Amino acid sequence: MNRWIASFAIATFTTVLSPAFADSDAPPSALEQTASDGTVQWTGGAIAAGIGYTWGGGTLAFAGGRHDFTISGMSIVDVGATSMSVAGDVYHLKNLSDFEGNYFALSAGGTLAGGGSAVYLQNQHGVVIKISATEVGLRFNLAAQGVNIVLKS
Questions:
Q1: Bridge partners for 139 per DSSP
Q2: Partners of 107 in the β-ladder
Q3: What CA–CA distance (Å, rounded) separates 82 from 138?
Q4: Are the C-beta atoms of 54 and 45 separated by less than 8 Å?
Q5: What mean pLDDT comes out for the span 63-81?
Q6: Is 134 exposed, middle or buried (0-12, 13-18, 19+ CB in 10 A)?
Q7: Which of 97, 42, 49, 98 is nearest to 72 (CA)?
Q8: pLDDT recorded at residue 33
Q9: Would the pLDDT of 103 be above 50?
Q10: At 127, is the secondary structure helix, strand, or coil?
Q11: Is 20 helix (H, G, I), strand (E, B) or coil?
């Protein structure tokens, strides 16, 4: 059963995430070889019972400044509750206003009493965020997720 779940997760990840980066200037593996345009850090939480909700707030370091933002979103095929701490690198960000938007990612993983995951997010402006998240709690998911990021005034 675990082998089937792992195979399904890999097939889903490859099928769903590849088109998400089709319009990007570089695939995720190539992003790690280029310098990032900025960094993000945020904290938040998630709760789910089939359909989940994620929330949080954080800071974008970009062009010598720090910019606060909020994040919220939905997930499907998700169960559990966690708190999270996220850090990441931002790519393809030329204008601060392009940071805002609806980001989509594919997440396949699990957390039991503390663990981590790495995910790529991309918005409609082509901005890509590679995040590493540390979660505390109990949560299992296999879900295409969408989150909305809004800069605070």
A1: 80, 111
A2: 143
A3: 6
A4: yes
A5: 84
A6: middle
A7: 42
A8: 65
A9: yes
A10: coil
A11: helix
